């Protein structure tokens, strides 16, 4: 694969030149082979990117809404055209099965961009209020720091609403999976985005990420990643009083009520938890089942898990690939071992390497399910970020809601019931940013984000654009 564009992207120029720091290798987690490397930037690169972004801001922020929306339309068309290349890049750097990479990693961003363009055209940027005229104004230069788990979607859901709002951007993609973000930047350049509106600096979090958070020329930071880093970002950002959006982890509950179609709810729940090798912030990692149905649910879940044999992500038939890195694999195996040590009942998977001749290399783990999990235990409280499901029994609806809310996170959730009204009432009592009812599909126009330790602020659709606007009121 051609990775000629594995460089910084500043002021419309691709900068390949070597630096004093060694380049960062990018591994294919299925083969453990280095497939590319990106230059490791530092504070000086961030500074130049900020200067470029500030320079571009005056003209980009004064373009009409329709002009900006048209750039987004063109971008969505190009992303759609390049879906196969994007999918292959994500498969190589993340280990996502190629089918999933096509259907999700390369397709969702097209919808994200189209929905952002639609939202932009429908928003009011100027309103009358008594003797005031109120204007929605772009906040300025936005710093975006993204993780590796959805390496295109996570980037698009920050930079596209920022650009739609009229802001300019300095992006630091994850050093674990930077290639698709760089491909995206190339596509945005092709789509006619003016130089300096998007700038990309590669590098490590404590260097480039921190330099973005500290830089006084950046007005807002949007971060997705771990809870610990999110907290550090918010603290640092306070020193320059930047506006901050944080999308951190989750431990989302899948509440299966006693009147639900148990087989469907469990199967869809298992599929959701194992999606992307369990590396989704909103994964439904706690399955709450009426106590008397626990053994039936366990049986259905074990049968469902058997259909997730880890395999080569390049194979069209593979449903679950490796984890993204050795570090992630090791931390997931440690979590499974902790679950066993805590006495949870293992009904699928386990800490051993998955069987299979083809899997002699790669960061694979067995899709794992525990049942009778104590709602206060490590397995039920910590974000594992791997294919590990905790099934938890409950007595009545009241207890189900209490267990669902017994988490320091508040990102996603689900409720299943034969009675949609009952499901809605339960969902409204769950303290999270999103809840899916009876398998309701992800909506790229709906506000996405969390409460409690899952962070604050919202992404996607008009709520995503709002994050990057402030209001100016003129009184007459
Ligand atoms: O995240 P980090 P990691 C969770 C998940 C996972 C764990 C660790 O539980 O197991 O986090 O993943 C940049 N200042 N999520 O270590 O370190 C970093 O370079 C500024 C949940 O990969 O938070 C990367 O670009 N930036 C999650 C980004 O932050 C810094 C997605 C995320 O990396 C920085 C990913 C610093 N001091 C992991 N240090 C979700 N919410 O979806 C690092 N970074």
Automatic annotation (TrEMBL):
Q: Which residues form the active site?
A: 247
**SUPFAM superfamilies, per database record:** ALDH-like (SSF53720)
- Is the keyword Oxidoreductase assigned to this protein? yes
Pinpoint the Aldehyde dehydrogenase domain residues: 18-472
**Which EC numbers characterise this protein's activity in its record?**
1.2.1.3
Q: Which reaction does it catalyse?
A: an aldehyde + NAD(+) + H2O = a carboxylate + NADH + 2 H(+)
Query: GO: which molecular function terms?
Result: aldehyde dehydrogenase (NAD+) activity
Identify the InterPro entries for this entry: Ald_DH/histidinol_DH, Ald_DH_C, Ald_DH_CS_CYS, Ald_DH_CS_GLU, Ald_DH_N, Aldehyde_DH_dom
Keyword list, A-Z = Oxidoreductase
Superkingdom of the source species: Bacteria
Give the family from UniProt.
Belongs to the aldehyde dehydrogenase family.
Give the matching PANTHER family: ALDEHYDE DEHYDROGENASE, ALDEHYDE DEHYDROGENASE-RELATED
The protein depicted here goes by the name: aldehyde dehydrogenase (NAD(+))
User: Which organism is the protein's source?
Assistant: Streptomyces iranensis
